[in-house]
Fold this protein.
Amino acid sequence: MGRGKIVIKKIDNMTSRQVTFSKRRTGLFKKAKELAILCDAEIGLIIFSDTGRLYEFSSSNMKSLIEKYSKAKEENHLIVFAASDVKKEAASLRQQFHNLQQNHRKMMGEELSGLSVADLQNLQNQLESSLRGVIMRKTSAALKDGSKLCL
Amino acid sequence: MGRGKIVIKKIDNMTSRQVTFSKRRTGLFKKAKELAILCDAEIGLIIFSDTGRLYEFSSSNMKSLIEKYSKAKEENHLIVFAASDVKKEAASLRQQFHNLQQNHRKMMGEELSGLSVADLQNLQNQLESSLRGVIMRKTSAALKDGSKLCL
DNA sequence: CCGACTATCTATAAGGG
DNA sequence: TCCCTTATAGATAGTCG
């Protein structure tokens, strides 16, 4: 479609390549839109130029279209998803981990500044209770070992 | 381009809509391929027909293209990613959290079964050390409070 | 580098088997 | 329903300003 026929191979001349890119890209987008309207299709079109610039068209919403695509391809092992869910989970895990770590540090006797006397008393009680449990356990375990060893 | 001009609106007749869909889809894919080759562009095209069937074309690899697209759109608040990375992070966090939780439980005097006498002794030492720290801290804090209250 | 022009090529609407 | 044909609308390569 033009003054002369062309063969489909990469256009060497950069200037005319860019001109052609601009013209044909416009045409492609137009055709995509027409097809979407005429045939009630859902279409997503993503183009990166050779210079890395992004052009896109979506008859609806690119994000939801990509999600739909991912789901449709799931059985074909495509591992693309809306990260929002996983990201939320990761953020929540990070938070939980942080909280537990803070707590754990206190039980290790670290970072006690900022605790009230009441907090410290609670912590002491907990540690004493744990200690009692551990000593009891140790004693019974040692007895068992001892009985084995002494027989 | 055909025997008659058409207006761009949804084709009512289902049969001719499907015929047009088939023809124009083929044409669109052809144009997309040509553009990719002629201008060295990276192109991804996703089409869902009105019946929900998926058609796709990618000049390279759809997955990597979608990832690239996601990254390019990051600043524009698009929340689509290859989940693999985030998933890995989440899995790692889950593991770390689990380990810390186990450790923490032992310091709470829970789930002590399975620990050797030596393990229990170490735990006891740690708890005693923590306890000393906490008591020391509590005493000095109580003194400070006390001095405030008693003045 | 961009837009306009237009001759020419391509896609396709309508029709037929 | 699908494939083929063909007249015609539409896209665009080369050119000019």
User: Anything to note?
Assistant: The longest strand of chain A covers residues 42-48. Residues 44 and 62 of chain A are 6 Å apart (CA to CA).
